[in-house]
């Protein structure tokens, strides 16, 4: 019987053993923890558990003095994430504290057309820990962009979530769990360190 060979990531093939960023070295970036994904037009699979993980990460980061940056998606008025809709609001579990920066974006990549990179430069942080939504969309786009900007990204899997998507070839639904797994696997190949949950992110 032919043995199954475990595939290796590009990082492993290059001899790199990546480790999650520590809260003492990174900034925590919470992406789009908004009501649109909780009880709005785009409810996500597993969002409540992910919000609990985000809340725990925020508590640890604040206790450690880690800079926290909240990214909030701003859509068109009346539409998804419209500033005049309930879906625009950040959920209570991830509510910013008065001294925490909130940056608005209009594209999946949180660096595109925003002050996020400048904010990290001002904080002298070259590493980011990412939590938020959706895994395959704004989390992935931001983590992929980070490497182009010379930043190390760690994505906390349990602090992210996504939704079912249509298969563009068959039209059959791709379950959210599969979308989640595939997005994290793609990021893990080269673009980000994947921490299973917040406990894997050291202080």
Describe this entry's structure for a reader.
A 6-stranded parallel β-sheet has the order 3-2-1-4-5-8. It has a two-stranded antiparallel sheet with strand order 6-7. The chain is built from 6 helices and 8 strands; from the N terminus they run αβααββαβαβββαβ. About 30% of the residues lie in helices and about 20% in strands. The chain has one domain (about 20-195): Rossmann fold. The protein starts with 9 loop residues before the first helix and ends in an 8-residue tail after the last strand. It is globular and about 55 Å long. With about 200 residues, the chain is α/β, with parallel strands linked by helices. Helix 5 (about 135-150) runs parallel beside helix 6 (about 175-190). The model has no long low-confidence stretch (mean pLDDT about 95).
Short description:
This protein has 203 residues and is an alpha/beta fold. It contains six helices and eight strands. It has helices at 10-13, 35-38, 47-64, 116-123, 135-148, 176-190, and strands at 27-31, 68-73, 101-105, 127-133, 152-161, 165-166, 173-174, 193-195.
In the CATH classification, which architecture applies? 3-Layer(aba) Sandwich
Q: Please give the share of residues in helix.
A: 25-40%
Number of domains: 1
Report strand order across the widest sheet: 3-2-1-4-5-8
CATH homolog superfamily: Isochorismatase-like
Low-confidence stretches: none
* Count of DSSP strands: 8
For this structure, what is the CATH class?
Alpha Beta
| Average pLDDT taken over every residue | 96
Tell me the series of helices and strands, N- to C-terminal.
HEHHEEHEHEEEHE
- Main beta sheet strand tally, sense and closure: 6 strands, parallel
* Amino-to-carboxy terminus distance: 45 Å
């Amino acid at each position: 019987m032919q043995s199954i060979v475990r595939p290796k990531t590009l990082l492993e093939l290059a001899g790199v053993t990546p480790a999650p960023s520590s809260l003492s070295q990174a900034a925590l970036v919470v992406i789009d923890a908004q009501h649109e994904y909780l009880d709005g037009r785009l409810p996500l699979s597993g969002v409540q558990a992910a919000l609990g993980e985000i809340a725990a990460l925020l508590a640890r980061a604040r206790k450690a003095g880690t800079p926290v940056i909240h990214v909030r998606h701003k859509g068109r008025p009346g539409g998804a994430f419209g500033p005049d809709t309930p879906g625009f609001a950040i959920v209570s579990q991830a509510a910013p504290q008065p001294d925490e920066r909130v940056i608005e974006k209009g594209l999946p990549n949180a660096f595109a057309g925003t002050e996020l990179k400048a904010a990290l430069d001002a904080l002298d942080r070259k590493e980011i820990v990412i939590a938020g939504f959706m895994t395959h969309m704004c989390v992935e786009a931001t983590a992929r962009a980070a490497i182009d900007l010379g930043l190390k990204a760690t994505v906390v899997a349990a602090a992210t979530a996504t939704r079912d998507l249509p298969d563009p070839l068959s039209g059959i639904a791709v379950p959210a769990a599969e979308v989640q797994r595939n997005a994290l696997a793609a990021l893990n190949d080269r673009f980000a360190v994947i921490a299973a949950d917040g406990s894997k992110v050291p202080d």
